[in-house]
Amino acid sequence: MNMLLASANKKKILEITPFLPGHTLQVPGEAGIFWQSPEENGHTFLDNAIIKAESLFALSGGIPVLADDSGLCIDALDGRPGIKSARYGSKPGCTPLSDYERNQLILEEMQGKENRSCRFVCALVLIIDTYRRYYIQETCEGVLLESLRGSGGFGYDPLFYIPELAKTMAELTPEEKNKVSHRGRALSKLMRLLK
């Protein structure tokens, strides 16, 4: 099946592609579709994934659309950065913070906090046609470190420690990450549903 990914994030495509053997995944621009990510004004990860999927599907000419919304939820910060993970700490109209700057902001906000439990959340939406839609949400539980560790992955991966593996998400091989990550779990479930 040919699918469009409601994203321009090339790192996300690299992470998703191994889960889609026999399927072709493209960003809208590669398919000749001009699409700008809509305002993500939902209240949940699933709301935002639906907003992205529906906006691209309206332009896709019937090509199925896959969208995800994901982020980090930290218990000691009342679930922040949550659905604003990608934009966290950025001021409207200004250049968004880099991954490194966002991680430093989180470390500052977490200073002196004992509860370091957190989770990555991924909501996936696949729209195949007007009547067939799949909605999936998965999590990966972890602990927020007090410093960055590892050079792989992106976003908050260097702060997210998985006790069972004794590694941060940024220290995992791509194969390890695909097995345990929030996105990996959601994509595995989606592919089982599509068989």
Description:
With 195 residues, this protein is α/β, with parallel strands linked by helices. It has a single domain (2-194), classed as Maf protein, CATH 3.90.950. The chain has five helices and seven strands. A seven-stranded mixed beta sheet has the order 2-1-3-4-5-6-7. The mean pLDDT is 93.
Strand content: 15-25%
- Rg (C-alpha, Å): 17 Å
Distance between the termini: 12 Å
CATH topology: Maf protein
Q: Which term fits the overall shape?
A: globular
Sheet with the most strands: spatial strand order: 2-1-3-4-5-6-7
Alpha-beta content class: alpha/beta
Mean pLDDT: 93
Q: Helicity level, as a percent range?
A: 25-40%
Low-confidence sequence ranges: none
Helix and strand succession?
Answer: EHEHEHEEEEHH
Count every beta strand, where a strand is a DSSP E run of 2 or more residues.
Answer: 7
The name of the CATH architecture is: Alpha-Beta Complex
Number of domains: 1
Q: How is the quaternary structure best described? A: single chain
The CATH class, by name, is: Alpha Beta
The number of helical segments is 5
Largest sheet: 7 strands, mixed
Task: Summarize, please.
The chain has 195 residues and is an alpha/beta fold. Helix content is 26%, strand content 23%.
List its salient traits.
195 residues, alpha/beta, 26% helix, 23% strand
